[in-house]
Amino acid sequence: MLDIKFIRENPELVKQGTAAKGRPVEAAVILKLDAERRALQTEVDGLRQGRGDKVVDIEAARAKKQRLKSKEEELNAISEKLEALLSAVTNLPRPDVKVGKDETENEVVATWGEPTKFDFKPLDYMALAAKHDLIDIERAGKVSGSRFGYLKNDLALLEFALIQYGLSKLLPHGFTPVIPPVLINEKAMRGMGYLDHGGEDETYHFKDEKMYLVGTSEQSIGPMHMDEVLAETDLPRRYVAFSTCFRREAGSYGKDTRGILRVHQFDKLEMVVYAKPEESDKEHEFLVSLEREIMQGLGLPHQLVRLCTGDLGDPSARTYDIETWLPSENKYRETHSCSTTTDYQSRRLNIRYKTAAGKLALVHMLNGTVFTNRTSIAILENYQQADGRIMIPEVLRAFMGNREFIPTPFPNTPAVDGG
Fold it and tell me: Residue 407: is the preceding peptide bond cis (ω within 30°)?
């Protein structure tokens, strides 16, 4: 959430920033409630201080006690109302983010590689998967329903290879590897800022236990240090987390229903960073550079896109997406996202650090995708050969037995067309 002091001092900036993200907020309403809360707090504090006065009139003392109780209840009610309003305020976009209404106004800031061209009629990834027995959505549908899939044989190995490749690129930069819980409590999920403005509709949650399945890896890594004070010398603190993620995909009916491009369950390797405020923009560019270096290592054509205000998520102050070329669709599709949430999440989670001068300050939090199964989809399509095989990117071969192509025969696996 935003600092109430910041809102008091910059009401017009808050109004403009939230409107630019399509989540307009009338700062005046919040400030009116804030003024009422502060006045009540002063009155309650005065009444509390007088509780130790010598009792002369028992009836007067009883009335004073009752008044204190009434004002405390009034204060609690108005504080809860103010807290709810503040929680619903989105993070403000950074000054360099373009004002735009939606994804159609996002900016392509860099490209790498040329869209893949073939001298034969290429197949889409589901046709390739059927040819080499890599994905089974029929049996997954029987067991789990729509938007699920079994990843099999070389595709399963390719996913593990991508994870190993990603770790090999990040660990030298001081990233701590983590396999986090995928079920988190309401305090943690709400602190990350993903439950407001319909976000709860996207999550799988257990209402009785007030527990949520994470929809992205940073949702369980971000709260790991909530209510803690970190040392300034320990920043930036970098994590790389592997976890299974779950999304309801509410409102996406009819979109990418075939295959595994948009599913309810997927695995993700994710970077999460805690940084000092003055270093967070530099850290953001660093995370983006790592994503691009990793994708260039895979040889996948892609473009770097900076999202406009109208396409930013609630916690994000700036987001870059990487969109990778998908030959079957003859266009780029999002495979990576990298965001800075400044102190929006850390304020909600109460994650601070102690400066060299001994003062406490909120950290800035950032996150960025390393891999999801969308990268595997892009590899299948961009690396397919005229004979139906798929070439394995060179940087992944060491993690796949130094083999060059998919498919590879597996013991006791029936032969399939093209195998």
Answer: yes
